Amino acid sequence: SLTPMFSILIGAVLFRVSVNAKSVLAIILGITGVMLMIVPRLDGSAGKADLIVYGLMLIVPLSYAVSGYLVKKCSSMGTSYLQLLFITNLVSGLLFLSLNGGLPVLTGGESIALYMGGILINIAAIALMLFISGRMSPAALSFSNYSTLMFSFILSMLVFSQELSAALMVAVVLIVISSVLIQEKNDAGVCDQ
Q: What is the pTM of this model?
């Protein structure tokens, strides 16, 4: 995920947040970990999309990075978590419906349970993000996107019997180190951005 990189760039350019070597190292380690997870699993058709598709794919991490700063700003203005939770889910839900032409047709109880479970987990994740966002910098919060990918691979091993490889273990270690680096406090006792 490029969200941490975009978050640090937005902070530096728009909010004059200083970028230190530890932040850069954290980004490099995190992106390396993500590449170790994803690149070995790409098939031959992954690189055959139009260039515009890859450009559009950059909108997702950019929007996450921007939302970290917006949520932080809204929280500091006194907007309640419930309001932020409603708005963030409404926007993402409407985007999902417009891009997919409506809701998918579900058949069978297992599909419906999976769908409803996904919705509830999404709401819980956004609620947790909103709660945490008041307690850390947007850049530090953006590193949670690495953990999302990491937990997706761990769950796919548990649920879908995907093999655990040395590259996946190294990726998890790199991602954890990158997240710890960005969370460490500096001498003033403030989390680095």
A: 0.70
Single-letter code of the amino acid located at 52 = I
Beta bridge partners of 191: 185
Q: Tell me the three state secondary structure of residue 172.
A: helix
Residue 56: pLDDT above 70? yes
Whole-angstrom distance, CA of residue 120 vs CA of residue 124:
6
Closest to 137 in 3D by CA, of 191, 76, 80: 191
Query: Degrees (nearest 5) of the Cα angle 35, 41, 42?
Result: 90
Residue 185 three-state SS: strand
Side-chain-side CA neighbours of 64 within 13 Å: the count stands at 22
Query: Max Cα separation, the chain?
Result: 56
Which residue type occupies 121? I
